[in-house]
Structure formats: structure tokens, C-alpha cells
Amino acid sequence: MWVSNLLLVVLYEQNDKSSFLFRFIQQNLGGLSVSDYEKLQAEKSNLQIKYMRYLLNIKKR
Hints:
Blueprint: H1 2-12, H2 17-29, H3 34-60
GO cellular component, one term: nucleus
Family: Belongs to the AMY1 family.
Main location: nucleus
């Protein structure tokens, strides 16, 4: 519980909250590297595009 409290306090004090939160979690709690995160984001985008194309193909039938 102290980690979540610390995280909220540190996050509150930062201007760029979204990128700081990711770096804070990665550095202090472990997790994906920035490049791994970017690869997952790219894969997610590609899958969303494929899904939208799939839905369009279904509607055309």
C-alpha cells in the first residue's frame, strides 16, 4: 500500500504525468523497457487496423 501512496504523491508533483508515471513504474517496480512498450503499442495499432478491415469486409457481404 505504501507503494501506491508514494506513486500518487510523486505523480501529483509532476507536470508530465503520463510519461513520468510509466518511467517511475519501470524504474521502481520493474517492467517493460521503453522499446518493448513501443513495440506493443505498434502491434496493438496493427491489430486494430486489421480488425477494422475485417469488420468492413463482413459488412460488405
